[in-house]
Amino acid sequence: MQLLVQALVISRLDYCNSLLAGLPACAIRPLQLIQNAATRLVFNLPKFSHTTPLLRSLHWLPVTARIHFKTLVLAYHAVNGSGPSYIQDMVKLYTPARALRSASAKLLAAPALRGGPKFPSAKTCRFAILAPKWWNELPIDIRTAESLHIFWRRLKTHLFRLHFER
After folding, report:
1. What SS3 class is residue 137?
2. Euclidean distance between the first and final Cα of the chain, in Å?
3. Residues of the chain with pLDDT under 70
4. What predicted TM-score, i.e. pTM, was given to this entire model?
5. DSSP SS3 for 92
6. What pLDDT digit, counting tens, does each position of 24-39 carry?
7. What CA–CA distance (Å, rounded) separates 67 from 73?
């Protein structure tokens, strides 16, 4: 049942979910309700069963964490030059004016929030604003991962701990 739910439901929740970054919780809540229902279906539990321990046992991140995950994977591609050029153009590595220890930390520069040809408005450039913010909040060992697989594994572990081990 878990494989079926992952193939038919969770894959649909994950499709282009990075576009949902920055939306209010009320817009994300219906997707979380779908994930909760899918979790209950896997365990064959009644409608009002608590899902947090179930999500944890399945190693499924909540929808908001899945959105963070997908957005940060896109940022990783952009930082390492393997993403589409239009995504790479949205994020720039932070280069300090003088030699600082943070130069090797792979931080991203925060974009200017004023309108202009590069950043017309905050609504149209959610990725360009949120990706650097979320990226810079990551621990350095995640940001400086040597490969996508290592980044992916460390990021999922980090987000899992943030959401389930409070």
Report:
1. helix
2. 29
3. 97-104, 113-125, 166
4. 0.86
5. coil
6. 999 999 999 999 999 9
7. 10
